[in-house]
Give the backbone structure.
Amino acid sequence: MIDIKEYYGLISPRPTVCISTMSPKGTANLGPYSFVSPVSFDPPVIGVSVGKGKDTILNARQTGDFVVIPLTKSWMKEGIRAEISLGRDQSEFEEIGLKRRLSKKVKSPGVMEAPVNIECEYWDEIRVGDHIWLLGKVVHISAEEGAIHNGRLNIEELGSVCHVKGEEFCISECTTTIERD
């Protein structure tokens, strides 16, 4: 029998992203998340579940924006390493060796090594148990050539990193078509 608190392991694999923010003092923050989902088409809104007190939620709330960066095979180890615990005045970018990418519409940086960066303006937040559902309105998408296929992440070429549970991840590199009525 599985403990009901372990339910999230049954909803897997989950796409993994990194979220970048900028503190009011100008420190860039980066962290991996797998409780993430599109929430609305119009307006385009993304939701991510963030632990209370995390730099991600504090910075997004204070500065009004963040960047969602889908984790792909080419930079997966660095992206997962961004989970390290640092002080508010220290940047995960420097600690793990990723380069910042200047964003077009928000102050928070993207990740230079990532083929896709999704810029968001802070929309709202909802307290849900021990987490906060951070909502962001998509205002710009930067994508390298070949990163998008049929209006979606080119997982066949890039490999989408997904979280299973704990230290387990998988890389999604294929699709199948299922006819729907």
